[in-house]
Amino acid sequence: MLPPHRYITFLNLVNLCSPKTVCEVGTWNGFRAIEIGNLGHKMDYIGYDLFEDATSVTDKEEFNVKPHHTQESVKQTIKSLTKNDKFTFKLVKGNTRKTLKPTKVDLAFIDGGHSIETIRGDYAMLKDSSVVVLDDYYIGGGGLDIERFGCNNVISNNKFYLFPDKDPVIGGGKVTMAVMFNDVELEELCKPILL
Questions:
Q1: Would you kindly state where each structural domain of the chain is located, as residue ranges?
Q2: Given the DSSP bridges, would you call strands 161-162 and 174-181 parallel, antiparallel or unpaired?
Q3: pLDDT tens-digit profile, the chain (195 residues)
């Protein structure tokens, strides 16, 4: 089964940027880390997630519908499926409101909690990174409450690009990713895949 289209564009963006340092908020099952690692670039990756600390309460607060994975199982999955000896990784368990500090990396990917409060906090910690990609930019329909969920309101006063791919959301509407650049050269390099 193919991943949603926006994730293919995301991997193309990562490949073009060839970041040396990557931070992913919302590592979940580790598959995005594996895809990033298997691009073949020399890279240090750090991934944040609740892992086994996630509960039905946090699922409701963060609009999460995915099953939970333990930090150790994700670590072993990444180790066994990443075929790039130039890729190093570290996983951090816990709520990013406590674990994530101001960090500047080459590429930040924010796809953890879906509440505006959590996304706003994650973005505040990673906003100075060269490239910042946020998932969960919602577009019309389906009763999506962008006053509570998604990155729409978090980045509304910034210059950003939307990925051209719009994937369907259960219940209606579409979702895509938004990307912001603090590096003009990378912005120019990546524009063709974003327009």
A1: 5-194
A2: antiparallel
A3: 557 899 999 999 999 999 999 999 999 999 999 999 999 999 999 999 999 999 999 989 898 888 999 999 999 999 999 999 999 999 999 999 999 999 999 999 999 999 999 999 999 999 999 999 999 999 987 667 888 999 999 999 999 999 999 999 877 889 999 999 999 999 999 999 998
Q: What is the CATH number assigned to the segment(s) 5-194?
A: 3.40.50.150
Would you say 171 and 140 are in contact if contact means Cβ atoms under 8 Å apart? no
For 106, the token pair is 């080459």
Greatest Cα-to-Cα distance within the chain, rounded to the nearest angstrom? 45
Residue 73, H or E segment:
helix 71-81
